[in-house]
Amino acid sequence: MLAGKRVLLIIGGGIAAYKSLDLIRRLKERGANVTPVLTRSASEFVTPLSASALAGEKVYTDLFDLTDEAEMGHIQLSRSADLIVVAPATADLMGKMAVGLAGDLATTLLMATDKRVLIAPAMNVRMWEHTATKRNLETLKADGVLTVGPDEGDMACGEFGFGRMAEPLEITAAVEAALTDGPLKGRHVIVTSGPTHEPIDPVRYIANRSSGAQGAAIAEALSGLGASVTFVSGPATSAMPGGCKILRVETAAEMKAAVEQALPADAVVFAAAVADWHVTDAGPSKIKKDDKGGLPSFKLAENPDILKTIANLPENRPKLVVGFAAETDQVLENATAKRLRKGCDWIVANDVRPETGIMGGSENDVCLITENGPENWPRMSKRDVATRLAQKIAETLS
Ligand code: CTP
User: 72, 146, 183, 325: which has the fewest Cβ within 10 Å?
Assistant: First the structure.
């Protein structure tokens, strides 16, 4: 339920704007107060009068309306809501949000707000797949903007594919999720994820097969329970999680610095597959092949152990430190020893032999090792592992 919650609904100029009128009704049915803001082009698709009649509230359309400014300034308008919803979020609006333009009331409100923003993108499938839109979406997610949809289906333009705005009930569920006080509300959790790349020379690096999928799912699950999540990610191939603050790093040293900068935290989950070594003499020039067939040699040095460092902090140690143990042999023995050696509270152990299909796949088969011993979880999707782990973290921190 949304009783007493205030939603500022920015309606963008797309054909899906008609669905936003239904969205107003759905939000109101659940007890929310909805203040609609129409962009200039949205008013070409739906009338301010319809939006106002359904919301039972004044509709805002123009930044420079002196009467509006006298009654409620745009800054106050952007702060008085509990959540800002942009539906439909057109390619144009997403682009403006990503670069921080504030040329009209809608974009000014988005720049001035201190509240969370949820966008429901809607556009033609080619526009949705355009690299500029993908880039903007990544930027918005990294800024902590929440997303719902788009869905796949027939579109008003006659094409088929992704780009159709999520249905009003789907958006309403996302609004409820964003406004529900989860058990981790007020808690800060750091999640490391993905591989690290350690340069050999300017064009080559040491890497590993981690996709970052498990870490991203954990971050999203923790955020879904209300935590404020800082996601420190190496160069991962899987999508960045929604609703999290994202810090991108490349090397283990950068990852350590980012984690330390993000402290204090109530919990830290180390899902990253950190490279164990870096090349000490990685120079600015590309290593060339030797005419005489000689092979290059590298000097390797051990990377800082980020998990061990944080688990052994003399002051402000996070209450819960969770490590991962990706093993190919004697999983349980190695992981149990690793938990003690690193000084962390829990270890999530998994068998990453290629035949398990776990590294880079969508499923995981884990054993959680705590101070009470091992707990075998059945094989399940990485998303389900994330949900179960996030719930366990919430129980432990409460
Ligand atoms: N880890 C870390 N910093 C490192 C290496 C690992 O924070 N330099 C973290 C990983 O994120 C993971 C845990 O430590 O949570 C275990 O990583 P793993 O690679 O399995 O262990 P290693 O310490 O590297 O041991 P080994 O490679 O010998 O198994």
Answer: 72
Nearest atom in ligand 1 to the alpha carbon of residue 310 is: 7
Strands 245-248 and 228-233: parallel
Q: Rounded to an integer, what distance in angstroms lies between the CA atom of residue 236 and that of residue 360? A: 10
* Cα separation values, 50 from 103, 130, 167, 169, 351, Å: 25, 33, 19, 19, 57
Please choose from 306, 307, 345, 368 the residue to mutate so as to test ligand 1's pocket, defined by most ligand atoms within 8 A of CB: 307
Average per-residue pLDDT in the chain? 92
Segment 339-349, tens digit of pLDDT: 999 999 999 99
Task: Pull the structure tokens for residue 253.
Answer: 């040293």
d(CA 356, CA 170): 35
Euclidean distance between CA atoms 301 and 119, whole angstroms: 45
Q: Residue 302 CA: which ligand 1 atom is closest?
A: 8
Minimal CA–CA distance to 238: which of 261, 269, 271, 268? 271
Q: Give backbone dihedrals phi and psi of 382, rounded to 5 degrees, phi first.
A: -60, -30
Whether the Cβ atoms of residue 372 and residue 396 lie closer than 8 Å to each other: no
Q: Which of 166-170, 254-258, 313-317 has the lowest mean pLDDT?
A: 166-170
Work out the widest C-alpha separation in the chain, in whole angstroms.
Answer: 82
From residue 236, give the alpha-carbon distance in Å to each of 157, 198, 229.
Answer: 35, 14, 18
